[in-house]
Design a protein that fits this description.
The structure is a single chain. This protein is an all-alpha fold and about 110 residues long. It has one domain. About 85% of the residues lie in helices and about 0% in strands. Helix 2 runs antiparallel to helix 3. It is flat, with a radius of gyration of 14 Å.
Length: about 110
């Protein structure tokens, strides 16, 4: 029973991530910052779930989860502080989300 609920959670997260990634690259300028922040929050949630689901003695994979969260912070800095590298920040954010999903599902 508990694994069924976990599977539903994974499917829901995957669907949300696919929708947010599609909206991130859509060329609509009205809500781009909101969608970007929503993607960043999803990335932080995925990194946190990955970090907390691993045992304490698997430090390498836990450090990868922290590294993916740092990549999200760098993407946020590129988007909102520097303001010149919008496509690079979107790419970094997408790579962090995909990396978190791969690490979480495997």
């Amino acid at each position: 029973m508990a694994l069924g609920v976990l599977w539903i959670l994974f499917i829901a997260l995957a669907v949300i991530a696919i929708i947010l990634q599609f909206l991130l690259y859509k060329q609509d300028g009205t809500r781009q910052n909101t969608i970007f922040i929503g993607n960043a929050i999803l990335g932080f949630i995925l990194s946190y779930m990955t970090y907390t689901s691993l045992p304490m003695n698997v430090t390498g994979q836990r450090n990868v989860a922290i590294g993916l969260a740092v990549v999200i912070v760098v993407a946020l800095l590129l988007k909102f502080v520097i303001n010149r590298y919008e496509n690079a920040s979107k790419l970094l954010l997408s790579l962090a989300i995909v990396g978190s999903f791969i690490q979480l599902f495997l």
